[in-house]
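Entry 12.
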Amino acid sequence: MAIRKALVCGAGGFIGSHMVKRLRAEGYWVRGADLKHTEYSPSEAHDFVIADLRLRDSWEAILDEGMDEVYQFAADMGGAGYIFTGENDAHVMHNSAMINLNAADFSAHRKVKKIFYSSSACMYPAYNQEDPNNPKCAEETAYPAAPDSEYGWEKLFSERMYLAFGRNYGLNVRIARFHNIFGPEGTWQGGKEKAPAALIRKVAEQPDGGQIEMWGDGLQTRSFLYIDECIEAVRRLMESSFSGPVNIGSEEMVTINQMAEMIMKIAGKELSIKHIPGPTGVRGRNSDNKLLRKELGWEPSQSLFDGLSKTYPWIHSQMQVASKKIPEVTAGAR
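Predicted 3D structure (tokens):
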């Protein structure tokens, strides 16, 4: 039996690097492509190419004719502090759209056997996510469209574009809408980190009895999915005959305050929370997994607490490593 070959786009990032590991474990030959190398551990890709996926020349170089599978995770994205301020909208839309236009076009014309596209729950209408206790995020609620960010609008456009390439060029597409994926080797500082990592870092920084800051009143609701379950769901979707779009997320909805309390419990600390103004996104969001259960016969089972329990020590260890780094001394410094 011939070895299956896969291209993972965004392989230097969080989800992409985990997918590379999974595919290697399954016996694939894997090429990774990204603007940057993996940050926290060496990539396990057989071939890792530094490439700007917005450029057609990059795709000419990385995508072989008849590649078995392409996994498209590459995007200009980040947490609420990056997505919802409005300051990065043009970059987010332009950069991600260019990547996806190239991915669809080259995959269709080079006869890729199957391509996965990672969409996002951010494409769901804001008007269905105003009640924190009863958000509506079933797949069929996507229209009339009204995402809460330009990031969400680009995701929605790209979903439709991939499906159009499927209809017009026979591109074999799989699409999933991710709901807040987290875990070890995810961004934990610098402004692009998401809520679980940001709160873990803040809790880890404080002594027992200290205080952390949180954007908003903390009553906004979300669900969060541990990285291993995200990877499992994507692989099951790729091996299925279902194209999607389908939600990949947890149905364990919590307030941000509740998640902070879980992290404090894991850390063994009692801290107070200072609520401050800041971007928070929609008021409520939770994965609706009815279609996932129906089409894949599977759903995530790991609790948020268990996932946070695995992520906290990893971020804490990264903080310790960062604190021991000696700052570079520039020439002429006194």
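Annotation: The longest strand covers residues 114-120. The two ends are 64 Å apart (CA to CA).
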